[in-house]
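Weekly modeling sync, notes
Attendees: AB, CL, MP (scribe)

Item 1: holo prediction request
CL wants a bound-state model with adenosine-5'-triphosphate before deciding which constructs to order. AB pointed out that an apo prediction alone won't tell us much about the pocket. Agreed to run with the ligand included and paste results into these notes for async review.

Input as submitted:
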Amino acid sequence: MAAEPLPAGDPAEPLISARGLVKTFGDFTAVDAIDVDVRPGEAFGFLGPNGAGKSSTMKMIGCVSPPSAGSLRIMGLDPATHGPAIRARLGVVPQRDTLDEELTVEENIWVYGRYFGLSRSEVRRRAAELLEFAQLAERSRSVVEPLSGGMKRRLTIARALVNQPRILLLDEPTTGLDPQARHVLWDRLFRLKREGVTLVLTTHYMDEAEQLCDRLVVMDHGRIVAEGSPRSLIEEHSTREVLELRFDSDDHREHLAAVDGVADRVEVLPDRLLLYTADGESAQAELGRRGVEPLSSLVRRSTLEDVFLHLTGRTLVD
Amino acid sequence: MARSLPLPAGAGMARMLVERNYRSFRRTWTVLVSGFFEPVFFLFSMGVGIGALVGDVEVGVGRTVPYAVFVAPALLAASAMNGAVFDSTTNVFFKLKYARLYDSVLATPLGPRDVAVGEITWALLRGLVYSGAFLVVAALAGAVTTWTALLAVPAATLIGWAFASIGMATTTYMRSWADFDFVQLAILPMFLFSATFYPLSTYPPALQWVVQATPLYHGVAMVRDLMLGTVDQGILVHVAYLAAMGAIGTVWTSRRIASLLLR
Ligand SMILES: Nc1ncnc2c1ncn2[C@@H]1O[C@H](COP(=O)(O)OP(=O)(O)OP(=O)(O)O)[C@@H](O)[C@H]1O
Ligand SMILES: [Mg+2]
């Protein structure tokens, strides 16, 4: 493909840049004027609950959904005028697998590579490598339909890599996979990142965001409510530790008075209280002195889930 | 923006989609068999069976041909139509709504125009295979009398294009399999009444106009001219009609694919 106008090796120049990006469907606003910059080589995440507008944003970046307003530049190019040139350099893993079930595993990669104009011998060579990478080599002649969810996801990722993309877009790459399959996938994504592929992913798993992302934005109702590295987001919007208390009662608000003053901040969930504090164990000790006796009491580190809860008053996965 | 242009974007790579279809087809080629036999059965039952009752048919001034020779071109035109329509409706609907093939295709450099051109090409190839095979059978059965009959093959391609493109455009409006009954409702009367089994002159003048407005009539008339060797400049009307239909259908399909999938 033609050389990109992007000055090579300038890490300050964003690979993806959105300003006031909007997506509306009728009079519903799915993405509400977001600003995003993704730098070369980083792993960038969109974290948010169902309906936050993550997929809508990914589709605009993937040049398959025209923005309703605002500006979007990908590798310095405008999707409205350079869609094919941009897509030639993107790898796309959609939220729902769209594998070609009428073809075999290896044919899926061959055919997909041909869509990028690669020669037949080149796609065969790359397919062999990619199937090795995705741990699917021994299934290469199998049809797609009977593969497990994890295998299909890996095949979708392998297929998305056939054009050696600069940017890999992953929409909920591990949703619906068991923990082991998720870890295999994460490992593959780390490798790609080491090879210099820029990863852009969406997820509603905070552990995934923490594991994979250098930087992320938290989205809610089409807006960006926070932005930064997982660590800086936690530092900024939460305390170091969280004390989780469960009581034997239907309404945990009843116990607010008993824990008053023990922590910096308290969140009430239907089944527990979250006490935000720099030192969970001292808080636990203080509750002991007060004679507060929860069913269970657990100290853990703050996560992005806590950040999200603090910012929106809601949990991520409900 | 793709939407404001009359013809949505493409990367000129429609052939890659044809290649993909060929790969998938290699496992399911048996479906071709029924489409091939249908017109052959018609040729023998109509041409030979009914032909014995009907005798010769007058074509042009003072020239008569056996009924089988008269009906064979119409069956060839109809098989090009049937092959193209089957692929561009049923198969495309499955890929569009269930397999979601085009969603993944549009994530690559290919655009909606490539999807339209690729699928229409594939569908017309199917019509072409049916009609080519039929021509061989008709020749063996003695229903082919002149060398211009060879031109029936490109003619069948044109018929395939016209019907495949309109077929695919229509398919983009379908909501469920039940809607395909309407396709049959359009195809069957055309097959029966487009001067297929008897000359246009059989109809009263008012009805002749109606028949002449339908696309299969032009396909049948064109192929018949070629296979009977009665070509004059009138054939240009048939060619123009079908080419316009193909072009309109292709642009229409591209736009529909863009508005359905690139939202
Ligand atoms: N094609 C469409 N037409 C109408 N509304 C749409 C369309 N696509 C998305 N939406 C709406 O836009 C909102 C955002 O959807 P989107 O798929 O971007 O969310 P998401 O963050 O990816 O959610 P999820 O985690 O469930 O995948 C939703 O309310 C959805 O119903
Ligand atoms: Mg989504």
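Recorded for review: Chain A touches chain B at residues 25, 62, 64-66, 80, 83-85, 87-88, 90, 92, 94, 96, 98-103, 107, 111-112, 114-117, 163 (CB under 8 Å).
Action items: CL to compare against the apo run; MP to circulate these notes.
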